């Protein structure tokens, strides 16, 4: 029997092709709501420092500024995919270059940018670490004093014997010793891979609108809308049924857009200003404060 397929060997039209090439595809940064403000975030220039004081009063002097928030407006509010260890806005300490410290919402992005530059942060610089191997040395500065205290901490597999350690996992299948004994060749090498950004074209955008009843409409560049809803609810102490995450197209992901990023900050600004707020990360922010793949140090032993 000779069957001719209409799929195999035939060209397939991309479903989203026409809308993309005609400019009709809608991304989070394209969301435009009545009365919407532009949000900008002031981020830490230091890899590790204690926040001694914050003076945001001058930010209010910029025409068009409608909201200014700092870590003092959300103390104790932490976020994360599983382990909630990242402050929505830092109130006592910053732990990496790009950590969120304060934010502004204004009528224009230029006004918001001008305002965050007027926020004065008094930092006490602390010793920092820059790779996992250095961080595990006994005399390295401790970045998180009590990992077990965080919500979502893997308490059953915590690496309590490793300085700055988080998790120790072991998995085995079969008799490894016997396998290596029978191997003709055994190779063992160590590899180091640096942190790297996923390189998507669309910078992450977050939009929040809150109605008179407190219900929240959200748009963001996340591939996981239900996770975004859950993370926003957990970070800000909200009920997830009061949040609707509207799905929009994602301009590239490659493993980098599975979290909420700045959505909780947009919520704080929208709540204070009582107006919708949009935050769009710059590419500089993407490279310093987004969701890159972490650096990896691996030793691999294989027998053949």
From TrEMBL:
Q: Which Pfam families match?
A: Ald_Xan_dh_C, MoCoBD_1
Output one GO MF annotation: oxidoreductase activity
Instruction: Outline the extent of the Aldehyde oxidase/xanthine dehydrogenase a/b hammerhead domain.
Output: 22-127
Output this protein's name: Aldehyde oxidase/xanthine dehydrogenase a/b hammerhead domain-containing protein
Name its species.
marine metagenome
């Amino acid at each position: 029997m000779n069957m001719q397929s209409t799929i195999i060997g035939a060209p397939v039209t991309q479903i989203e092709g026409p809308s993309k090439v005609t400019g009709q595809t809608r991304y989070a940064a394209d969301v435009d709501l009545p009365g919407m403000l532009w949000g900008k975030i002031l981020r830490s220039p230091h890899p590790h420092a204690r926040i001694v004081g914050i003076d945001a009063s001058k930010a209010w002097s910029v025409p068009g500024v409608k909201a200014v928030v700092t870590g003092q407006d959300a103390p104790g509010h932490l976020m994360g995919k599983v382990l909630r260890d990242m402050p929505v806005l830092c109130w006592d300490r910053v732990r990496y270059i790009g950590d969120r410290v304060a934010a502004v919402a204004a009528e224009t992005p230029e006004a918001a940018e001008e305002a965050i530059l007027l926020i004065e942060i008094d930092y006490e610089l602390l010793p920092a670490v820059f790779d996992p191997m250095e961080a595990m040395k006994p005399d390295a500065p401790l970045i998180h004093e009590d990992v077990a205290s965080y919500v979502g901490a893997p308490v059953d597999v915590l690496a309590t014997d490793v300085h700055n350690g988080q998790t120790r996992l072991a998995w085995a299948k079969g008799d490894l010793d016997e396998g290596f004994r029978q191997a003709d060749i055994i190779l063992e090498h160590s590899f180091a891979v640096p942190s790297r950004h996923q390189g998507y074209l669309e910078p992450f955008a977050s939009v929040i609108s809150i109605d008179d009843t407190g219900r929240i409409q959200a748009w963001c560049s996340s591939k996981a809308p239900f996770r975004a809803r859950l993370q926003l609810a957990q970070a800000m102490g909200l009920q997830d049924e009061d949040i609707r995450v509207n799905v929009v197209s994602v301009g590239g992901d490659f493993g980098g857009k599975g979290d909420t990023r700045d959505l909780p900050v947009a919520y704080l600004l929208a709540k204070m200003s009582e107006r919708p707020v949009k935050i769009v990360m710059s590419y500089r922010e993407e490279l310093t404060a987004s969701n890159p793949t972490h650096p990896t140090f691996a030793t691999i032993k294989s027998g053949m």
